[in-house]
Amino acid sequence: PNKMPQFTKIEKKHLIISILILTFVFAFNDKSSSFYLPLWLLNFIKILIIITFSLLFKEIIKKYWAEKYGAFSEHRIWNIQRYFLRAKNKFPFKIPIGIILPLLITIFSLGKLFFPITSESSITYSKTKRAGRKWAHLPHWEEGKISIMGPLSSLAIVFIFKILSYITPFSFQNVIFINSLLAAFYMLPFPQLEGGKVFIGSKTYYVLCLMFILLSVFLINIIGILETIILSGILA
Prior knowledge:
This protein is mainly α and 236 residues long. The chain has helices spanning 9-27, 37-68, 97-108, 140-147, 149-167, 173-185, 194-201, 203-219, 225-235; strands at 71-77, 80-82, 90-95, 119-125. A hairpin with a 7-residue loop joins strand 2 and strand 3. Helix 5 packs antiparallel against helix 6 (173-185). The chain starts with 8 loop residues before the first helix and ends with a helix.
């Protein structure tokens, strides 16, 4: 049997940072007409639980899937260093844009706009684990198939909790909303993000997955689960 995926010490630190940032992003504006600290803190704790569950679920699924390809998936804060196409066009240090951008957009929009991207798709591979495969290295196509499990995991949470909202008296609106945004935003085709890795691996596969996710996120609030999956798949 497969062992529970392990998180490295540095990965745990990056994961905690992501959880706190995303919790701040989604809890900053609690939609109340007046600020009342105890209620704001209660909402913050609720969002913290949702974000922690959502990110852990996503990362565990990616780790399991990476194992299939003799690779390792790790949670890393999104950093940029190159500011143009040429290799020499670099800043002297890495900029943690996965921290800066979500916080700035949240603060300047007073919590009305969301940019819930904190991490990049960090995938490495082991030549030993890939022994006997067609390629000793990890091709872009396989890296894309690992990366797509991030947005699809978030979408799976949307489907699961939408079903639970039908069979329980709870609506789970925050869980559905947050994971809908995570699934959609992480499909942005920036090179270091999950969407970017899928785009590099196969543009056709990227368009198929992007349309399926966007259509699902849109239709899930209009029609039923089964209809959403079928219609999104056909249109994609």
